[in-house]
Amino acid sequence: xxxxxxxxxxxxxxxxxxxxxxxxxxxxxxxxxxxxxxxxxxxxxxxxxxxxxxxxxxxxxxxxxxxxxxxxxxxxxxxxxxxxxxxxxxxxxxxxxxxxxxxxxxxxxxxxxxxxxxxxxxxxxxxxxxxxxxxxxxxxxxxxxxxxxxxxxxxxxxxxxxxxxxxxxxxxxxxxxxxxxxxxxxxxxxxxxxxxxxxxxxxxxxxxxxxxxxxxxxxxxxxxxxxxxxxxxxxxxxxxxxxxxxxxxxxxxxxxxxxx
Length: 260
Ligand code: 6GU
Fold this sequence. Notes:
Blueprint: E1 2-7, H1 20-27, E2 32-37, E3 50-51, E4 61-62, H2 64-74, E5 81-92, H3 95-101, E6 106-111, H4 119-125, E7 128-131, H5 141-152, E8 185-186, E9 189-190, H6 200-218, H7 230-238, H8 242-259
Parallel strand pairs: 1-2, 1-6, 5-6, 5-7
Antiparallel strand pairs: 3-4, 8-9
The structure holds 6-chloroguanine.
6-chloroguanine (6GU) is lined by residues 86-88, 90, 130-133, 135-137, 139-140, 143.
């Protein structure tokens, strides 16, 4: 996977890419990151990448020509590429987005700054606009790093099998079960017996129930979109969780309908 980043702050990307799993992915050639300074494509005397908005108002708008020229220089070859503008006005980035983006050969991130980018650049060159949450950052750089991190760890061979992405929170639409390691007793609290039992079926069942309970408590709205198997529904019924979940799903659907 090739990531190309268009930014006016290239230094933002130096140290976050030099640690841990991302560093190893770069060393192993599983990912490649090209950081491109938009200012290098600003050809006026002052190398301006932004200007005052037509119509007046606060803040500055990123000029379309340096962005377009920078992008054209990056978009050589015919790799399946997605051009992504990071902006608080974008579609919310989720684990599903990460999976979808992981299928491209190249992602180009355009990091917006100031009050936004000229609309004509967005219309002509941007495939999708992505936001990482309902809050405002000073620019798209941190968001681009978030998306690169989330996508990278889904690529084949990036995670060791020890930390496989298969059991992540959100991978099955629920939050991940709790985890324990040594010592068996920490400050008077022991690890749950079942985890020491060696009974893998019992452990899987325990973790499934844990996942459901944690999700019910913290992010109940997520359960509306989870497809439980017949076997899972049987377990949930036995644990007296099924009716709670079914009620919740019904409520959620009704809310969606009345909202839509
Ligand atoms: Cl992608 N950019 C900015 N500036 N703020 C954000 C964001 C992106 N996502 C959430 N807030």
